[in-house]
């Protein structure tokens, strides 16, 4: 102690000295008092006083005061800076802590082995790799990089910054490797999917005498699971088990998703046995992971059994049940369970509601999906950006435009319109509801588009038979640099086939593999067969099927059979039908098509034969059925349904229209009647087609000029097509008809499909 300092000590009152010498600090006000005393006695220049003050201010969160004191020291040391750096780190003020460090360096003060770990921790917290590397260099120059605490913090910094190579280098230099560091490295390798490195490190650990513990194994499993390396996760789980480790809750919840995704049902059942024996099923993560695993392995019924075993009634587990059951087509069971949850007053969150809504929409329960969406809002649960795209397909399927519009409005208010999933689902919904202009508008307004958005727009245009628009969108898509996928080409080929663009069809079919390396799939062949078939090139279509590199499926043969129906080709029609009878013996549509071909040629014995075949198989013709929305209510009309209360009015109107049509030179196309009956009777049967009934029902029940929208569960027949065309002109109505294949937009006596569908 210099003379000067000793002199100062003599002047400063005893309590202040006591404070300065003690390392524990009392209150902030005490600190301030002492600070004032120091200034009063002109002692602030002396590092020994200042360091304690800095520490005191830092511990009281007064970083500005601490920095102020730091600035007043003429010759600060590392001990002047370190308390501030520690405190800043402790409160996660990482960038401030790095800033203080750089101030320290510019004062010519070097870090020590106590401050360095704090700096690496700050770099890790900021993922500031470059800064971290520079500090690493400084540590090397100072010869401090062999300190175990420095090494440890450096290792974790590199791990955090995702630099496995650098982390490994540090790891290799650590002299005393412990299980914690090894586990961290194992987990890091697993998260990168590096199974060789994981295995190698396990061998190395054995040599070093470091035994992996449960934490190490769980880290490996969750790492592989995280990155989707399911096979590796399952393999490591088996290794872990063979080495005598007993999985705990964490292990089981990490491995089950991998088991589910790789559909290893047997292993899943074994784990289930273990879980039951160990009583782990009481853990909610284990329980939901188990349900999820069965769902992914395709055993919906095992979920039901499992649910009885799980005593825990908890939201996460319940959500997993709903999703698992819906995924396996057991949507009725899912609905039943959901009702039960409501009765049991279980807390249902947005995930619960979204799961059941999605389950319904994906399994043909469209009306239920819409009803649940309404109920969810009544229950006060706010839909999110997953809920909306889950319910919109239901609106599209049944053309429930009003519900779709409401969901659109909701997304605008909730600010989720920029979400690509919401946007794509809206494009699709409006297209299916016949409002292709709205789809277009949403598409063009989307700030960012992914491939799903582009594909939805192309599919929408294709459904409406707008070929040139589909091609236009496709060309714009190519300009964006996004790579079209097989779905893009399906839309494109479907559009070409609907528009009868044979040359373009071939062009894109070849482009798909030559330019984009996409191997044509069955659906692409089906489009091509359709395209060739519609153009009357039936032999060429048949050659294409024969030349396919894989077995043809029902879609491809179905395309040929439908084309044979259009061109009344008996020989190829019989070949196609024979194959279809093998592939899907219970689909009545195929028998009807073949029978139609025979009927068109007057081959009535063959017609009878087909009918007998259907009868012996117990098949009934799928009844034609159409829906129309009038005054917010969906009305269903069945072919030949005499029980409908308005049937008399509808028939009268049809007769009137028929007379008008005949006046303008129209004759009904009697080819479209299946039965072997007298000509006049045939005309009567044609009158009963559901799409025509629905259109006339709409005419009678809506004000003049209202557009009509009809959905049909089968393909529209040629006769109905002509009649509806006539009605659109005669009654001056826009009429949208959506059949299983596409949209027909009738206006002023014409249809958007150009009579080609
Ligand atoms: Zn018809
Ligand atoms: Zn049409």
Structure, explained:
The chain is mostly helical and 757 residues long. Among the domains are: 521-622, Serine Threonine Protein Phosphatase 5, Tetratricopeptide repeat (Alpha Horseshoe), CATH 1.25.40; 626-751, no CATH class. 68% of the residues lie in helices and 4% in strands. The longest helix has 17 residues, at 647-663. The chain is elongated. The structure holds zinc ion (2 copies). One zinc ion binds at residues 721, 744, 751, 753, 757.
Summarize this structure briefly.
This protein has 757 residues and is mainly alpha-helical. It is built from 41 helices and 6 strands.
List key phrases describing it:
single chain; 757 residues; mainly alpha; Serine Threonine Protein Phosphatase 5, Tetratricopeptide repeat; 41 helices; 68% helix; 4% strand; binds zinc ion
Helix/strand-derived category reads mainly alpha
> How much strand content do the residues show?
under 5%
What count of helical segments does DSSP give?
Answer: 41
Attached small molecules: zinc ion
Distance between the termini: 102 Å
Shape, per Cα inertia axes: elongated
Strand order of the largest sheet: 2-1-3-4-5-6
Low-confidence stretches: 676-683
Q: Give the C-alpha Rg.
A: 37 Å
Number of extended strands: 6
């Amino acid at each position: 102690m210099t003379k000067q300092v000793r002199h100062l000590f003599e002047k400063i009152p005893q309590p202040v000295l006591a404070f300065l010498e003690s390392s524990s600090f009392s209150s902030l006000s005490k600190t301030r008092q002492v600070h004032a005393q120091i200034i009063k006695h002109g002692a602030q220049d002396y590092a020994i006083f200042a360091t304690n003050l800095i520490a005191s201010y830092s511990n009281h969160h007064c970083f500005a005061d601490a920095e102020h004191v730091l600035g007043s020291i003429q010759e600060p040391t590392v001990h002047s800076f370190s308390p501030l750096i520690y405190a800043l780190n402790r409160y996660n003020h990482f960038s401030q802590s790095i800033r203080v460090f750089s101030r320290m360096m510019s004062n010519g003060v070097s870090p020590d082995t106590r401050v360095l770990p704090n700096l690496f921790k700050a770099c890790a917290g900021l993922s500031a790799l470059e800064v971290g590397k520079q500090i690493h260099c400084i540590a090397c120059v100072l010869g401090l990089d062999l300190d175990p605490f420095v090494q440890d913090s450096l290792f974790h910094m590199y791990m955090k910054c995702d630099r496995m190579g650098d982390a490994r280098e540090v790891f290799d230099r650590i002299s005393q490797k412990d299980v914690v560091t090894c586990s961290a490295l194992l987990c890091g390798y697993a998260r990168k999917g590096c199974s060789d490195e994981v295995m190698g490190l396990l061998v190395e650990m054995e040599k070093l005498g470091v035994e992996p513990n449960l934490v190490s194994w769980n880290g490996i499993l969750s790492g592989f699971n995280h990155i989707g390396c399911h096979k590796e996760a399952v393999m490591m789980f088996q290794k872990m088990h063979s080495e005598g480790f007993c999985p705990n809750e964490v292990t089981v919840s990490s491995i089950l998703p991998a088991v589910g995704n790789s559909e290893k049902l047997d292993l899943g059942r074994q784990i289930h046995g273990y879980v039951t024996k160990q009583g782990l099923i009481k853990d909610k993560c284990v329980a939901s992971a188990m349900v999820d695993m069965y769902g992914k392995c395709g055993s919906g019924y095992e979920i039901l059994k499992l649910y009885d075993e799980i005593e825990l009634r908890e939201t996460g587990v319940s959500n997993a049940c709903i999703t698992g059951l819906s995924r396996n087509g057991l949507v009725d069971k899912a609905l039943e369970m959901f009702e039960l949850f409501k009765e049991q007053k279980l807390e249902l969150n947005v995930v619960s509601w979204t799961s059941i809504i999605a389950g319904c929409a994906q399994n043909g329960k469209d009306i239920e999906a819409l009803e649940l969406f309404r109920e969810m809002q009544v229950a006060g649960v706010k839909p999110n950006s997953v809920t909306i795209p889950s319910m919109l397909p239901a609106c599209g399927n049944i053309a429930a435009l009003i519900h779709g519009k409401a969901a659109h409005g909701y997304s605008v208010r909730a600010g989720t319109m920029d979400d690509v999933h919401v946007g794509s689902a809206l494009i699709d919904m409006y297209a299916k509801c016949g409002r292709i202009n709205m789809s277009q508008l949403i598409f063009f307004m989307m700030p960012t588009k992914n491939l799903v958005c582009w594909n939805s727009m192309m599919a929408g245009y294709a459904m409406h038979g707008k070929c040139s628009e589909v091609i236009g969108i496709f060309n714009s898509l190519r300009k964006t640099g996004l790579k079209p996928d097989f779905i893009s080409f399906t839309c494109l080929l479907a559009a070409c086939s609907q528009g009868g663009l044979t040359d373009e069809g071939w062009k894109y079919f070849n482009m798909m593999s030559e330019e984009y390396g996409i191997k044509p799939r069955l659906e692409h062949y089906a489009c091509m067969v359709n395209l060739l078939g519609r153009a009357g090139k039936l032999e060429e279509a048949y050659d294409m099927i024969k030349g396919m590199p894989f077995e043809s499926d029902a879609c491809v043969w179905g395309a040929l059979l439908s084309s044979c129906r259009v061109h009344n080709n008996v020989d190829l029609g019989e070949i196609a039908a024979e194959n279809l009878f093998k592939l899907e013996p219970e689909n009545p549509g195929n028998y009807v098509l073949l029978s139609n071909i025979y009927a068109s040629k007057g081959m009535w014995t063959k017609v009878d034969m087909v009918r007998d075949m259907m009868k012996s198989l117990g098949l009934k013709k799928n009844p034609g059925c159409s829906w129309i929305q009038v005054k917010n209510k969906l009305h269903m009309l069945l072919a030949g349904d005499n029980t409908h209360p308005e049937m008399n009015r509808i028939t009268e109107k049809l007769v009137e229209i028929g007379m008008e049509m005949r006046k303008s030179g129209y004759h009904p196309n009697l080819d479209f009647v299946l039965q072997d009956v007298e000509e006049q009777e045939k005309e009567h049967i044609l009158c009963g087609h559901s799409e025509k009934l629905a259109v006339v029902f709409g005419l009678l029940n809506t004000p003049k000029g209202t557009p009509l929208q009809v959905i049909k569960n089968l393909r529209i027949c040629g006769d109905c097509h002509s009649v509806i065309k006539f009605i659109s002109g005669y009654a001056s109505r826009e009429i949208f008809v959506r059949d299983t294949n596409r949209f027909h937009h009738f206006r002023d006596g014409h249809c958007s499909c150009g009579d080609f569908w």
